[in-house]
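Revision sheet: structure tokens.
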Amino acid sequence: MRNTSEGAEARKPHGGSAGGAGADRSIKLELDIQKERMGKLIGTNSQTVKNIQEKVSTVRVITPGKDDAASDEYKLVAVMLKGKASDVFKASKMIHDVATAAGHTTSRPAELT
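Predicted:
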């Protein structure tokens, strides 16, 4: 599945168990954020990421380290979301809104667990 509107790209999930995907299923979602937009996403004293995690407390937001974000090799850096499927997608929408207010982002489900 691909959604290319507003710079977003979603790919089919891989891995996980044989059952159908449900809202209570645990997943990982990787969002590719333009490197120069990471400051906006993280916020002063990590406040933007903390606010997202407070609003969707079942989701863990993993941002790249400074070394990964500082690398000149790539223009995009990965932000990983882990948690209950429905909440991961809520958090990804919040992150997408912050990132697209300042630039573009793409997303792809990393795997189901």
